[in-house]
Amino acid sequence: MAAGPYNYSYIFKYIIIGDMGVGKSCLLHQFTEKKFMADCPHTIGVEFGTRIIEVSGQKIKLQIWDTAGQERFRAVTRSYYRGAAGALMVYDITRRSTYNHLSSWLTDARNLTNPNTVIFLIGNKSDLEAQRDVTYEEAKQFADENECSAKTGDNVEDAFLDTAKKIYQNIQDGSLDLNAAESGVQHKPATPRNPLNTDQTPSKEGCAC
Amino acid sequence: MDFVQRELSVDESFEYVDYPSENAQLFDTNSPPTDQSSFEEISIPKESYTEEPSSPTELPVGMDRVRTRAKPLTEEDFKLLLDEDGRLVDEHALRRAVFMGGVDPKIRKEVWQFLFGLYPCTSTYREREDLLLDYLMKYHELKSRWKTMLVLNAKPGASLLQQGLVARYQMEEQSNKLRSPDLCDDNPVTEWEIQQTNKLAAMETVDHPDFSILSRSCKNLDISIPEMEQKINFMKIQAQVFVNRLLIDINSLWKHLRVIDKDVPRTDRDQEFFKIQKDFTEDGMIMKINLVVMLLKEMDPSLLEHLEKQELGDLLFCHRWLLLGFKREFSFDDSLRCFEILSSHHLELNSIEAEKARRQEQMKEFQHIGGGTKIEACDGESDYTFELFMCLALLEECRDELLQCTDIAIVFNIINNLKIDLDDILLKSAKLFYKYCKKSVEDSFLMVETPPILPKVKKKNISFMGNKS
């Protein structure tokens, strides 16, 4: 991994939620590694990914919590929601059941995060157009969503970036209180490895995880 | 080595019972160690603990027994455990051998059949053949019923392929609605169902159970449910649950397994069933995690305190470990070994090993305070299973890192990226286990010694049921 100095002005905590097998881990992997993970094991509990992105000239470190989708252990998974600035709610466009369950995921997300948490709907597996089970229009009625494919990488970037833009916008217009403990956003953290760096130093682009 | 000698040695001392094998190296703690670094002083003479004054730095008694790990149980050694008719005479010895080193993959199938209670240990070769046939019949009967149910639940006029697709992809949604002739008394099996069952049963070919197929299937996880079902028998379903990769409703599967199972009154299997089932229910998991919290509180309160400050006092991250016996932490082969070692239940608080350790501690403590007080066996919390001690050992393993860290995400990262050596962590867990035994005895003596409130000395019924000694 690049050992060069990097820094950022904000850390945003994201969570990825949705039914088992919709491709949450693959989305994360595509976003952080730009690769499709073909043989992805079930997530147990939570896994992590980070990447630094840039929004309106600000470097933002996304700390992404990829949760397990198994229904059986919702109570355990629920403990990871707290303090998320963004929640990516994922379903699989080829499996209607995963779409039907969105309302329960949304209820969880609403109840367990703060009111300013940006919830973003993602229909994954858009490369499997032939097996489509949920139309774009239908999902559009449910929410403004983004269809993407963790396999081809289509729109994956946008999903994460759009969410970050929205969070950043909330910070700018003051609707997100950075001082609130549960905001999910940390401002200007000290970088532990390079404590002498100032936030203004130019940094390397790209993935830092 | 003959059986008489082994039986004697069980009661005779607190030292290892010699493993009944010509291969002296396997468990003989007096043989020269192969790996000097992992070995220190090996066996403390039997009498020494009563004569030496106990000091705080002294190793907890019993630790000499877990100073090293053994090689996997081999076929030859396993054969020695069976008598001429095939009875497993000394189940304790088998469980100990499995605990100490796991099982050679070649005989894994056979050993697991005893370990998970498929066959009673007292059964002979011939009895097992009969039992197997019985299981096979029941298994195929069950499978046919399931198939019938799937047909009944498919849309009218669905083709075989469509039914298959329903079975394969819609199980999750359908499972609640499935009509099960086994579970609903008010829903009698119809004539039509019986016909369907017979038709489907006729299509079946009875495969001889072959455990190696499952092992392969475990590696190739894309194998379909119908393919899998063709090849598994009752035993394999149990292991299949361990693998936990199929999109079937595990709970209903278990309920159905119980139906087959109820004709065979085996308490071992019941216990195993409930133990494994715990992993698959939320309540069971949370209960287990709470036990880890309690155990950590007793053994390392400062670490728990630190984690509580980071709002991680619920230790929910242990979920990853406790689900399927640390499977995610090891390679495939090691995870199988870990699973059988945990399932041996050799070292549990209600096992004879723990009882020995406690008795030994009591004698020592008794000597120490010069006699006078005599109490019943201390109250060990027998809900603390060995896997919980393993969780504790893992937490201790990254203790320093955890204590330094104040960011929840980093805590998770530490936990998720632990590099664990199975044998090493098993040794450490056993050490903690004995430490706990020692501590619980000391605590009970402490209770007696501290008036003015007269403590309630709990009388513990040490149960040996789970360990078939």
Question: Can you walk me through this structure?
Answer:
The complex is a heterodimer of chains A (209) and B (469). By secondary structure, chain A is an alpha/beta fold. Chain A has a single domain (4-200), classed as P-loop containing nucleotide triphosphate hydrolases (Rossmann fold, 3-Layer(aba) Sandwich), CATH 3.40.50.300. Helices cover 26% and strands 23% of the residues of chain A. Chain A is built from 6 helices and 7 strands, in the order βαββαβααβαβαβ. Chain A has helices at residues 24-33, 74-78, 96-100, 102-112, 136-142, 156-172; strands spanning 10-18, 46-55, 58-67, 86-92, 118-124, 145-147, 185-187. Chain A is globular and about 45 Å long. Residues 1-5 and 190-209 of chain A have low confidence and may be disordered. By secondary structure, chain B is mostly helical. Chain B is 56% helix and 0% strand. Chain B is built from 23 helices and no strands. The longest helix of chain B has 29 residues, at 125-153. Chain B is globular. Classes of the chains: A alpha/beta (209), B mainly alpha (469). Chain A binds chain B through residues 13, 21, 41-42, 44-48, 63, 65, 72-76, 79, 95, 97, and chain B through 169-170, 172-173, 244-245, 247, 280-282, 285-286, 314, 316-317, 319-320, 323, 328, 409, 412-413, 416.
